[in-house]
């Protein structure tokens, strides 16, 4: 760690991991509710658990992005953070607002929450992933603006690199597109449009920039490969991500009442959405293969490679699986969507944040890398979580295919609930994989506390 | 003079090796069959013992294995499971997607190794 | 220091390998779009033939010549820097090529103005949907290509390239040729072929 203010990232990372644990606990609960419908009812009904599961994901990813930016930007800009106190203040505001929101979901009925938070003054609640009370949304905007100001001033008054500029572009996009969540038109089609302008343009647009920048940063650090080489790849990847991702939004407009041409535009452009992820895999493999030194932090290298592969698998391949309009006609809103969602979020965004944490945490604790035992444990957690996620995805895909066949494709289609009964075996298997994931996560947390001998690299290999 | 001759030869080999690895990857992704024919042509240009020969052979092996693993096994699943059984499609689609992706990722690694003139497993220096 | 480590990707194509991945992906998008167009055309032949007649073929043909000329200027730019190391001359050829792109955009805008004032939109029918999406997507590529060429021209003018180092010029040129090539396929496909 070169700059004192980078250590603010630690706060954000700890909060992120804490919320991650919450997310997975609710995930495991939900998985069980799929097969035991009244589990924890009426205390935590399915719809509430699902809302907490997805909202915690978004909030902890935002914590992770912010923490990563606070670590990455000072080092790239070669100066201290513009206003460290502001970063600390925003951390507490965001954490308290986030915790209160989650408590609100759990303690009172959603309608009461809307009433307490005076949703009728500016109605924004009730949409999937954007369930936050209006006041929380305003809080998110304030935190995001303060964050952007802090990061932006640091970048603008310091060294400007391609990585920090791409990251800044992504983060500005994140804040700007969130503003669409304040517009809540009565027309259901319009409502869906604006909802997707937040959700899609985040995960298949600007977040990809953030992800690519963070991955590139870690790869430069752990491989020592020339910045020029990495920047060149970064340009190409983000150009592809934007070209395919922006018009690719059309794949959400197939059946919402939008004009027909979206079936063409959406299919064609989203068919190439896997390519930026494919390029990311090629890029990460290439850079690691050409590494100029062996970094003592083997776990971080593993996470970086894992991110590239799993993002391609989850976002690229599993996205393509059901993106073409004729296929999506049968598959939309089935467990195939859930399969894609799980692996894409894990492979692209969860893993890239864990990569950043894996790389930067030891440095913030005054070491080049975690000790040998800690790294072994961390790599175990990598494999447990990743393999568990692959199985969750496979089981959900199987469930999805069976669901499509029985409920939509068959000449004698079954009803929704009758179909769900037939999928039970997959849901049990998925729950099992979910528990393995949870164990992997606990192991991951344990790896920060494991004691052991420091990894010593041969003198020549360690360049700083 | 001898030296420049060898380096030219090496350059040509590197070019062939990366072309072979690229053809192998393309055959697995967006240009099937045509790329395999291209791969066979590249194979014919190479000499045993050289790096380009290694990558051409590797590409052919990957693609034949992939063809067998994907089409033969999927066909078997359909024949044994029955075309009109939903469970057949549960297995075939899930299997095909994941195994296909694994082959693609493997071919990407082979391509990257061919760029640096390495074999798959030889130690990087 | 250790030269063995500083490896380059083997040189297969003019310009940077990365730009070729980009070009390849662009061609893939256009390729998928063209095939979709062809398939739908076969299914709706009469309708396509009827509305194809409303397109301004003369303007399209002029634009084809404009783009090909512009591509030629780019060839001259590469030639100038590669064989003579003349970076000022190179930048001049690039500016000429950018001007060609500008003419294309102006002519195309007239065409769009004509269509839009006739009340035609993406929703009018499938033919216009393809016509507008394909040409507008290409339009955006012309703009992007011009931006790339401009960046290279400015760098060339400042002496950023030489006879031995001109990979940037070649990369930009390759991209511009791709933009040209796509139009050369798009124009007969959408405007002419019946």
TrEMBL record, chain A:
Subcellular location(s) per record: Cell membrane
InterPro entries: Cyt_c_oxase-like_su1_dom (IPR023616), Cyt_c_oxase-like_su1_sf (IPR036927), Cyt_C_Oxase_1 (IPR000883), Cyt_c_Oxase_su1_BS (IPR023615)
Annotated TM spans: 12-36, 56-73, 85-108, 135-156, 163-183, 195-220, 232-255, 261-288, 300-321, 341-361, 382-405, 425-449
Protein name according to UniProt: Nitric oxide reductase subunit B
EC number: 1.7.2.5
Pathway listed: Nitrogen metabolism; nitrate reduction (denitrification); dinitrogen from nitrate: step 3/4
Oligomeric and partner information: Heterodimer of cytochromes b (large subunit) and c (small subunit).
UniProtKB/TrEMBL annotation, chain B:
Pfam family, one: MamF_MmsF
Entry keyword set: Membrane, Transmembrane, Transmembrane helix
Localisation: Membrane
The keyword Transmembrane is annotated on this UniProt entry: yes
Spans traversing the lipid bilayer: 20-43, 64-83, 89-112
Keyword Transmembrane helix applies: yes
InterPro entries: MamF_MmsF
Topology with respect to the bilayer: Multi-pass membrane protein
Protein name: DUF4870 domain-containing protein
Source taxonomy: Bacteria, Pseudomonadati, Pseudomonadota, Gammaproteobacteria, Thiotrichales
TrEMBL record, chain C:
Location of the protein in the cell: Cell membrane; Membrane
Topology of this chain in the membrane: Multi-pass membrane protein
Residues covered by the Heme-copper oxidase subunit III family profile domain: 17-194
Entry-linked InterPro entries: Cyt_c/ubiquinol_Oxase_su3 (IPR024791), Cyt_c_oxidase-like_su3 (IPR000298), Cyt_c_oxidase_su3-like_sf (IPR035973), Cyt_c_oxidase_su3_a-hlx (IPR013833)
Pfam families: COX3
Main location: membrane
Residues of the signal peptide: none
Molecular function via GO: cytochrome-c oxidase activity
Gene3D superfamilies per the UniProt record, alphabetical: Cytochrome c oxidase, subunit III, four-helix bundle
CDD domains in UniProt: NorE_like
Gene Ontology biological process terms from the UniProt entry: aerobic electron transport chain
GO cellular component, one term: plasma membrane
Family annotation (PROSITE patterns): COX3
Positions of transmembrane segments: 17-40, 61-81, 93-110, 130-154, 174-193
Keywords assigned: Membrane, Transmembrane, Transmembrane helix
Protein family according to the UniProt entry: Belongs to the cytochrome c oxidase subunit 3 family.
Protein name: Nitric oxide reductase NorE protein
Taxonomic placement: Bacteria, Pseudomonadati, Pseudomonadota, Gammaproteobacteria, Thiotrichales
